[in-house]
Each structure stands twice: as structure tokens, then as C-alpha cells.
Amino acid sequence: MSFENAPTKAIDVDGTSFVYREIGEKSDVPVIFLHHLTAVLDDWDPRVVDGVAAEHQVIIFDNRGVGGSGGATPTSVEEMARDAVAFIRALGLSKVDLLGFSLGGFVAQVIAQEQPDLIRKVIIAGSGPAGGEGLSNMGAVLQDALAKAGASGKHPKHFLFFSQTDNGQVAASAFLARLNEREGDRDAAISNETIGAQLTAIHAWGQGDPSKLSEIHHPVLVANGDDDVMAPTINSFELARRLPNAQLSIFPDASHGGIFQYHPVFVQQALDFLR
Amino acid sequence: MSFENAPTKAIDVDGTSFVYREIGEKSDVPVIFLHHLTAVLDDWDPRVVDGVAAEHQVIIFDNRGVGGSGGATPTSVEEMARDAVAFIRALGLSKVDLLGFSLGGFVAQVIAQEQPDLIRKVIIAGSGPAGGEGLSNMGAVLQDALAKAGASGKHPKHFLFFSQTDNGQVAASAFLARLNEREGDRDAAISNETIGAQLTAIHAWGQGDPSKLSEIHHPVLVANGDDDVMAPTINSFELARRLPNAQLSIFPDASHGGIFQYHPVFVQQALDFLR
């Protein structure tokens, strides 16, 4: 079962329907993917999902209010983390790995802090700690990219996820083509209300007190492009420096979507790390 | 012609014989490799040399007083840079790329500053800027590793170049085996006098005034392991941040020898960068 043809399922989480997809063989410690700002199920790079699913059960889902999931998206990372934990528990899981990208990386940090026994290992990509440099600016960066996208006829991720070099822009087109591989049973679009709530949560995270990262003793793999315009790369250095048990992977000539641009290398690093 | 069977040649540089090896097809802009503390010709990873030589002429050499080269090793990075430039000019070259590893990365920075027109692109691995955090401590780190090596019967590079995890130590053994692939025409050993002069130069670099990195406008690829015990990784972040035209590559679960541990990925990144 690959990501391209994994059916979209739904589960009741405390009275709200959450949509998700499972890929890979069932395992004791599945890897839960935590999505980014504006993302629905179809925004995950199939190469990363299928790559990790080669050795692990992978579960991707829409958090509350996102895509096909019901309810209203909360306006704090802490509430998003509680919703994610409720979803994980609703699946009957008692131990999981997390892969959080961008906003999902914020959520992963809170889950690791608040539910340490639920978590084995954590991958945090394109993200940063609470109070991290430039993180509260993500809304303005998004707005600027939407304007550029409108003016140029390109997808905003050309500006947000990839470097503006030839290499970066070729990688952007390849990534966007991968997101379109799945033909049927695609997820619902994200709503403007949800984006607004996510931006509120991200702004509060960026303005928040520094996380107590020294309390997260799980093994963590931190990954990013070397010039992330959404979550400035210095935040990845900070995560790796302040987390007691962290590894760091930085990809050259890459931005927020570095793990997608370098998906063969990143998948290998993720598999090595999760082993 | 691969690194394993490239003959060791010699050239007169202002009255002193410098030894070198050439690999790959002749090209207009060869890549000059600048070696690390204690290194002779046989300390370069054949996979990295041959990997870069797949698309470029690669020239490795012993700087003054090192291995089979004559003369006395100077006690400053600036003098080493002048010797390297004299070697490059003696070969009749007017434009080169540089790949400097550790001490060689210091030398590369000085060459790029003092002879900007001689240089096209620069790769700096396992290195850092003048005055960089912890760089003047390299001698003590070396001494500690020599003691551990003596006590454990392992090569010092197990401690200096690779992380102490299972992955890191397997990579260390594989790297050391690669260094032994060449059977004949091996280089002379390094002398204690040369190591002493190199340590003096490194100490002065580490205590030196911060380099004027903003003056280096060449494209630079900075690479390192995420936990370099010889040239702390924060120095690679600093190089990438302060150099006006830099890319950064950081390898997880890796130390000073990250580019050797991840040689397939690093070679690909280097080829992309040099194209």
C-alpha cells in the first residue's frame, strides 16, 4: 500500500471526525506525521511518506478543523498538541514516533514535553523552538509569497519551500508534481478560518517564552534547508543545541522544504535515526 | 586514473620540492584540496577524491614541510596560504576551486581573501573562521584522542573524526580501510616538527581577530558533521552566516569527518555546487 492509493479513513475523536491515512505494515511504534500551516493530507511528499513507510507504519492525519477533519482549529499550539494526542489515543496507540514539519514541529515539541511516555523518537523539520527568531513573522512571509505567486502565476511553495536558484526551482516543480500524483479520493481544501487560527497559534508560539527543551530527553533528529525563509534556519541550530539528545541535518541550497528537495537523503537519515 | 593508482609527482616551488597527485581529466579550473593537521597525501578519502574527480581535475598536495614535500612547515595559516598559492602558480594555473578540510579550510579562507582572482569557488569542511569558538583547543583535543587511542588500541581518528555511536564507529573503520586501499607509492609520514608548527598556526588562528568574511564574495559550500569535536560545528554555522554567498551542509550523527562518513551525499553536493 503506497501513499498514492492509501484510502482516506475517519475516526471519531471525542465526538469529532478526524481523517487519516495509514501506509506501511502495522508496527508497534508507528510514525505519526504532524502537518504544516495550510497543509491537508495531500500536501505530504509521497516520496517521504513512502520512504519512511518502507520500514515503519506511517499515519498521516488532519488535525482538528483541517481539510476533511471536523471541528474548529484551535488558536494555540498547545491545544493542537492535545488534539493530536487525542487522535493518537483514539487509534489505540500507546507508543509512537513523531515527524513534525514546521507548525507540526511545534506541535511535536509540546507532545514530547506533555506526554513523554507516549513518544519514542521525534523528527522535527523546518521548525523551531517557542520564542525562536523570526517564527512569529511566518504570516507575513506567507502573505508576501501569496502576492508573488499571484503576480508570477507560480504556486506559493515555489517561494516558501525552495531556494530561488535554478536547482531550487527545479526541485519545487518536481515536488509540486509529486503532490499531484494521487488522482482519486483527495482531501478537502483547507479553509481560511483554519489558516487564520493556525497563524494565530504560530504567532503566539513565536512570541512565546522559550520552550524548556532540556526536559525533552527523547532522541530528536532536527532537519532543515540551509536558508529557510519561513522558519529561519538558526532555529534548527538552536533546537539541536538545546535538546539534550539531538542530531542535526542541514541541506545546502534549500529552504523550508529542504527535506522534500533532498528526499532520498532525508529518508535515509530518517530511517537510520528511527532504527 | 583513480586516486589509488595516481602517481606521486613533484614540482619545484621557489626552490623547494612539493609532492602532489593529479586525478581526473585536465580541466580549466581544477579543484585543489587543502589538507588537515597531521595529514599527508594518503589521508584523503579516495571516495571523495575520485567522486569529485568524476567531473573535475583534482590536485592534492602536501604543503611545505608536510609528508614528502621539502622545507619547514611555517607556523601561521597566512604563510601556509602563501605556500599553497606558490604551488598553484608553479603548476601554471590561473583559476582554481578550493576544497579545504579543517586546517585546510583556514588556508582556503586566507587564499580567497588575498588572491580573490585566483579562486572560482570554495568548499570548506570541518573548519571555522579566525577567532572561532573552540578552534584554539584543537591541540588539546588531539592530545586527548592520542591518549584514548593508545589506551584502546584504536586509531585516533575513531575519536576525532567520527561520532561515538555504533553508526559513527562503523563509519570510522570503513574510512580507515579506504585510506589503506593504496598499496604502493605511499607518501612519507608527517614529522613531529610539522605537527608542532601546524598546532602553533591553528592556535594562533583560533585566537586571532575575526576574519573579514564579508570580503569573500566567492560561492562557498560549508560542510560539517553535526557534532564536530575538533572544529565545533557552531563555526560552520558562523561561516555560512557571515560569508555573503554561502551554502551549508550538516550531516547528522557525525563529527569532524562528516564529509567522509557521508561521502556519497557530500560528493553529490560538491558536484552540484561546483557545476
Structure description:
- The structure is a homodimer of 275-residue chains.
- Chain A has 275 residues and is α/β, with parallel strands linked by helices.
- Chain A has one domain (9-274): Alpha/Beta hydrolase fold, catalytic domain (Rossmann fold), CATH 3.40.50.1820.
- Chain A is 39% helix and 17% strand.
- Chain A has ten helices and eight strands.
- Chain A has helices at residues 46-53, 77-90, 103-114, 138-152, 157-160, 166-179, 192-207, 234-242, 258-261, 263-274, and strands spanning 9-13, 16-23, 31-34, 58-61, 96-101, 119-125, 220-225, 246-251.
- An eight-stranded mixed β-sheet of chain A has the order 1-2-4-3-5-6-7-8, sandwiched between helices.
- In chain A, α1 links the parallel β3 (31-34) and β4.
- In chain A, α1 packs parallel to α10 (263-274) and α2 (77-90) packs across α3 (103-114).
- The longest helix of chain A is centred in the last third of the chain and has 16 residues, at 192-207.
- Chain A starts with 8 loop residues before the first strand and ends with a helix.
- The mean pLDDT of chain A is 97.
- Chains A and B meet through α8, β8 and α10 of A and α8, β8 and α10 of B.
